[in-house]
Hints:
The chain is of the alpha/beta class. Helices cover 35% and strands 14% of the residues. Strands 2-1-3-4-5-6 form a six-stranded parallel β-sheet, sandwiched between helices.
Amino acid sequence: MPRKLNIALISPRTGLYRFGTGVFPLTLRYSPLNMVTLAALVPPELRGSITIYDESVEKVDPTTIHADLVGLTGITGVSMRAYAYAEYFRRRGITTVMGGPHATLMPEEAARHVDAVVIGHAYATWPRVLQDYLDGRLQKFYHPPASIDWSLIPRPHREAFYGKRFVTTNATQAVFGCPHQCEFCVTPVVCKGKYERRPIPDVVNDLASMPGRYVTFLDPSPVENVEYSIALYKAIAPLKKRWGGLATTRIVDRPDLLDAMEESGCFGLLIGFESLTDCGNSTIGKGFNDIRKYRKLMQELHARNISVMGCFVHGLDSDGPDCFKYTLDFIHEAHVDLPRFTVCTPFPGTPFFRRLKREGRILTENWTLYDAQHVVFRPKNMTVEELQEGHIRCWETAYRLNSIVSRLNGSRTFLEYTILANLGYRLYCHGHRKFPPARMARDWRLPVTTPEDIARIEARPSPGAE
Length: 466
């Protein structure tokens, strides 16, 4: 009889988004899929206790965690905090495994702090990690197979999040990867340029099993195969769900796709407008964004009662200090329901990072500052201070009460959600100034972190070591 494993899965957060210290409203948080999927992938014969900890909705005291194995995940901005957890648990003799975007981008770095690194999708490798651990032959790196049978993905153990402070646990994913090669984006690097899809009946069954009416699709780029997307939306329409997800600006040219979205219950889309200039979009490999069609896209979506979270990036090589005005003018003229702003961030492992590194423009490799809200490189056409201050003021201006009223009065789309979301983001943006770079640089440390941990985690290898 195989030994049963007691497993703890931890998702760290930076102070800006951490429960108890952060400024991100609880009402805007939906549950992620990664940890509940890992829980579902544990073979029944090995399953003892599986406990999931998410710092965005709860305080985590590592001294109270008792497990055979601790799994950690995280994007670049939380990677150093993940390492702090790993160093602590290893001192206690507990085996640690790390996966997720940053571990995939920087596996050699992650391997200095954990016992095993899972690279890429873990659907096939996570069960093997657990068996190898029991057999005493844990490997340092686990790579995904050349192909994955997407029909074998188990139903996530969403019940592990029941009772936690998420607005919904109804999240799913139909499409993986992205066919585009945007210079700053981690998705094509993590997914190695692949663009893959689950069988539509599996997605329909997943949605049908969820309680309640509202669902969130977490697909990073779901509509690039239009035929698949339309077929999916037609298949889920009979479920009478209301769903939100992501899309690119290219949908403006496909009224049949827009109609299918509306008829299947779409209430909102996150769309990466990124830049208000052709030069800006072309520079980052997103030349398919046609700025002349932005307003038409907003009109088409609002006409179908679909709200828009519009995402905009500041600090591109074509951006000067006037980029913030262009962005604010657009969000007010087009009545963007929920604008979101990021500082262009050169995540390690991406072509953008490598280019800026060659140009000597990277200012810090303290990954905690790589949260897309702090400037970590030297901009081309403005100062660091102009970019950071302009970015924060853009948030503050967009979420003034008169701005909220003006935008939503022009949109009048799904107001029962967008009013609350705007008020939530108003709280969020006013918290930015509480997290200056000096505070964020130390934010990753735990109460149990030792000076030795700090030295190991903050150390950077010599050039070429990664």
